[in-house]
Amino acid sequence: MLNFLRHFAGVKTDQAMQAGLEALVRWDPKGATEAELRTMEEHLDDLGMEVAQARSAYDREQKEADAIRSLLNQRMAAAEMLQTQLSAEADPIRKGQLEKSLGTLLDMLEDMTPEVERETSEAADAKDFLGMLESTYADAGAKLKEARRQLERAERDLKRAEQQRELAERQAEAARRAAGLSSSTNSLNIALKAMNEAAAHDLAKADAAASKAKLLAPTRPEQDDPNIAAALAAASGRAPTAQSASERLARLKSLQG
């Protein structure tokens, strides 16, 4: 039960850390990408150190293998020379000396053969290990380069999207302003139309009033001709206005009589 709880708590902690990491990445994807690239670069640097160490180890192993192989070849050549001398020697004493020397050299060759094989095998293993690390290093470098290229492309795409968004916002703002100006123009046109209509109506009323006043006003002959004026006054039931003192006196007498 305790083991279960410990493992369960560990899982929950890992999940919380993962959730926090994902939240951080969503909050700052560019920063998270840069951090990941730096981590990849650090790993590449570490791998580069391992490659350098492996290359140094391989060089050392190969030099040792070459040296012991060269010594083996020299001793083999010496043994072959002794064998040739031994075959041609007729003197028993000299022949015995050559046999002893050849035996000693053959013992040395037999003893060093396993060592030569071991050094050769170690050099081959070091070479294989170096090749594997170099391949891994090259792949890691290519991945880092590709990751940086993708980041640069993503940044360009993001910048292009921001520019397009800003352009769209400016176009939308221009459209709003154009719509507002159109609305204002329409309102102005409506107001001008109403004012013109009101002015036209007032002018029409003024013309009608002037025509009416002109129609109702006495004409020139009605004012200048006393007979027409008297007739109009009689027709309207009004006494004509006296034009002289004698006329005024006659009118007053007629009213008394």
TrEMBL record:
Keyword Coiled coil: yes
Protein name in the entry: Phage shock protein A (PspA) family protein
UniProt keyword annotations, A-Z: Coiled coil
Biased composition (Low complexity): 206-217, 229-242
Lineage per the UniProt record: Bacteria, Pseudomonadati, Pseudomonadota, Gammaproteobacteria, Chromatiales
The organism's place on the tree of life at top rank: Bacteria
Region (Disordered) location: 203-257
Coiled-coil zones: 37-64, 130-178
